[in-house]
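Can anyone check this?
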Amino acid sequence: MPAFETTTIALLLWAVIGYGLGSIPFGLVVTKAMGLGNLREIGSGNIGTTNVLRTGSKKAAALTLLLDGGKGAVAVLLARMMAGEDAAQLAGLMAFIGHCFPVWLQFKGGKGVATFLGLMLALAWPVGIACCATWLAAAALSRISSMGALMAALSAPLWALLLGRTDAALLAALLAAIVFWRHAANIARIRTGTEPKIGQK
C-alpha cells in the first residue's frame, strides 16, 4: 500500500470522483449513439465490450473498450496529479467499482475488465502491460475471452510484486478478487465446457 499522505476529506472526494467516472456506462452510450439498439436486450445484457461486440459492430466494441479503459486511467492520473499516490489508488478502485456497480443502472454494471486494465496501465504501466499481455496470451491459447480476463486479473498482484510495485500489489489483489466474483457464471461455464469461444456464434 502507498503511504497515506492525502487528507481524509480529499480521499473521500477522490473516491466520489473515481466512482462517478467509473459509473459512466459507455457501452450503453456508444450503442445508443450509433443506433445499435438497447444493449440490455442484446446477448447477456452486460454493458461491457464483449456484449457490445454482439451487436455486430467492431467499431462500437473498440470505442467501448477504449472509453471503459480510459475512465479508469483518467481517475488514476487525475488523482495522482492533484493529490497523491494514495488518492490515485483509491480513485482507481472506485472507478472500477463504479463500472461494476453504477448507481444509474441500479448497481447492475459490467464485469470491469477494460476498466481494470486501464487503471493498471495508469497506476503502474509495466504491470498494466504485463496484464494486457497475459490477457492476450490466455485468450489466444484458450480462445475464451473470459479466460483471458481471469488470468490477467490473477496475474496482476504477481506482476506488481515481480516488477517492483509492491505498493500496488494489495490493490491488484482486491481488483482480481472482484473480477473473479463478477465472472462467477463464466467460471461455471468454463468448468462445464459451455463457455462460448471467441468468434463463436
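Reply from J.R.: I decoded it. Residues 44 and 176 are 22 Å apart (CA to CA).
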